[in-house]
């Protein structure tokens, strides 16, 4: 029998327009042939410019390629240019995105320095005003984007959906039978609100390439359904995120599940993982999770990956777990320098394995790997470099010696 090869399915490519989010010399292209971008948001009071600038820098250093800050009051709008100035002084040119709700039209009009210091405006069409005021207030924000040449994200969220539009669509679709139900109408309202707002902005003169859309919901299956619909009906760049994903493992897993399916289908040009930090957890954790999702899918590389086995009854010591953790932390901590000094190092693969069952095999698949001795095995740890057995480590300095070998490999 002739066997046919098992195909490797690469992520699909959706053709989207390309937006440019710019600050000074830094241009973050979103959509088109650009890599999927990572973004995050501060949780400081924007009025506290120093605290906010420090957190923006932390998020940027963790890998956030744009950082959103809330601009909710005149005081916050007044603080934005100062935050930008602080960042520039620190040598941090990450673009800032202003998050506007309810009063964005006034803030962008009355605080031109704020409008200039931001690189992108996030506009929520669900709360730009009601009735006759809606078009006018939305128009004022678009005018600011045109005047200052800024990108815009039209970000719909089902927690703040345009209620007039929803009521209208409910009414229009009340005669339809299954599968049309309240949920279907909600999906339709999210997609319609985003696309019709984008079209209105284009009619006002905003360059369509500078528009990014999002329709965030908090359920995994809902998000997949909505974004499939949204991506099929437009070619705007899309910002992807499971809103209010939650805390810890739940939020991480739900975000990874939803985003991975859509990204594999080519849907999503920029992502945010919205994690609620647990007490004591760093705000940067959501950036780490977003990076890991893209790296696990093979879409981007940020840090060398460390493959480690889970351990089992064949290895009773925790040496390999400690070594895996130690190597992983070391590689991550070195990346700000290594990224510049050793381009391509982020694609490196290291294996730290607990015994000879899968140890040598997995080590050979990595650039550099070690198989620590399991229970009953001779106290020797073969090291593999570029698929070949290079040496065997023995004694109680195995961890330190492997550390040095990894360092030498990177430098070489
Ligand atoms: Fe267990 Fe060895 Fe497999 Fe690790 S490599 S899980 S120690 S059998």
Low-confidence runs of at least 5 consecutive residues: none
Cofactors, ions and other ligands in the entry: iron/sulfur cluster
Structural class: alpha/beta
Taking the alpha carbons of the first and last residues, their distance comes to 46 Å
Strand content: 15-25%
Given the structure, what is the number of helices?
Answer: 13
Number of strands: 17
Mean pLDDT: 93
Radius of gyration: 25 Å
Q: Which outline best applies?
A: globular
> Which strand order spans the largest sheet, edge to edge or round the barrel?
3-4-5-6-7-8-9-11
Helix content: 40-55%
Order of helices and strands: EEEHEHEHHEHEHHEHEEHEEHEHEHEEEH
| Largest sheet, strands/sense/barrel | 8 strands, parallel, barrel
Domain IspG TIM-barrel: 28-290
Protein name: 4-hydroxy-3-methylbut-2-en-1-yl diphosphate synthase (flavodoxin)
Family: Belongs to the IspG family.
Catalytic activity: (2E)-4-hydroxy-3-methylbut-2-enyl diphosphate + oxidized [flavodoxin] + H2O + 2 H(+) = 2-C-methyl-D-erythritol 2,4-cyclic diphosphate + reduced [flavodoxin]
Which helices and strands, and how do they pair?
Layout: E1 18-23, E2 26-31, E3 37-41, H1 49-62, E4 66-70, H2 74-89, E5 96-100, H3 104-110, H4 112-117, E6 120-123, H5 132-148, E7 151-157, H6 163-172, H7 182-203, E8 211-216, H8 220-233, E9 237-240, E10 246-247, H9 248-264, E11 270-271, E12 275-276, H10 285-296, E13 305-308, H11 319-341, E14 349-353, H12 359-365, E15 368-371, E16 380-385, E17 388-394, H13 398-411
Helix pairs in contact: 1-2, 3-5, 6-7, 7-8, 8-9, 9-10
The structure holds iron/sulfur cluster.
Domain IspG TIM-barrel: 28-290
Domain IspG C-terminal: 306-407
Catalytic activity: (2E)-4-hydroxy-3-methylbut-2-enyl diphosphate + oxidized [flavodoxin] + H2O + 2 H(+) = 2-C-methyl-D-erythritol 2,4-cyclic diphosphate + reduced [flavodoxin]
């Amino acid at each position: 029998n002739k066997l046919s090869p098992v195909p490797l399915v690469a992520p699909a490519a959706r053709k989207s327009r390309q937006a440019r989010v710019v600050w000074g010399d830094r241009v973050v292209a979103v959509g088109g042939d650009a890599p999927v971008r990572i973004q995050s948001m501060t949780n400081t009071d924007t009025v506290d410019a120093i605290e906010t600038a420090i957190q923006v820098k932390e998020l940027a250093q963790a890998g956030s390629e744009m950082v959103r800050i809330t601009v909710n009051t005149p005081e916050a709008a007044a603080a934005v240019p100062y935050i930008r100035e602080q960042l520039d002084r620190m040598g941090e040119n990450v673009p800032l995105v202003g998050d506007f709700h309810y009063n964005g039209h006034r803030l962008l009009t009355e605080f031109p320095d704020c409008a200039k210091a931001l690189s992108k405006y996030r506009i929520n069409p669900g709360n730009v005003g009601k009735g006759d005021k809606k078009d006018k207030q939305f128009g004022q924000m678009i005018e600011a984007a045109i005047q200052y040449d800024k990108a815009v994200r039209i970000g719909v969220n089902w927690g703040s959906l345009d209620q007039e539009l929803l009521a209208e669509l409910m009414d229009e679709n009340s005669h339809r039978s299954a599968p049309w139900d309240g949920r279907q109408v909600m999906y339709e309202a999210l997609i319609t609100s985003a696309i019709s707002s984008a079209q209105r902005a284009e009619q006002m003169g905003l360059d369509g390439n500078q528009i990014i859309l999002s329709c965030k919901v908090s359920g995994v299956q809902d998000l997949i359904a909505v974004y499939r619909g949204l991506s099929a009906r437009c070619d705007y760049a899309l910002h992807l995120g499971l809103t209010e994903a939650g805390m810890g493992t739940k939020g991480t897993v739900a975000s990874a599940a939803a985003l991975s399916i859509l990204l594999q289908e080519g849907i999503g040009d920029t992502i945010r993982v919205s994690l609620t930090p647990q007490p004591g957890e760093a705000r940067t954790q959501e950036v780490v999770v977003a990076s890991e999702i893209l790296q696990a899918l093979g879409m981007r590389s940020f840090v060398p990956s460390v493959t480690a086995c889970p351990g089992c009854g064949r290895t009773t010591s925790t040496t390999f777990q400690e070594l895996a953790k130690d190597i992983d932390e070391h590689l991550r901590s070195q990346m700000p320098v290594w990224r510049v000094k050793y381009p391509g190092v982020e694609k490196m693969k290291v294996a730290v394995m607990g015994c000879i069952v899968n140890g040598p095999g997995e080590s050979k698949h990595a650039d550099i790997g070690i198989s620590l001795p399991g229970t009953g095995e001779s106290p020797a740890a073969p090291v593999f470099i570029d698929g070949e057995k290079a040496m065997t480590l023995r004694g109680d300095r195995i961890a330190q010696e492997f550390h040095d070998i990894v360092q030498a490999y990177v430098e070489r």
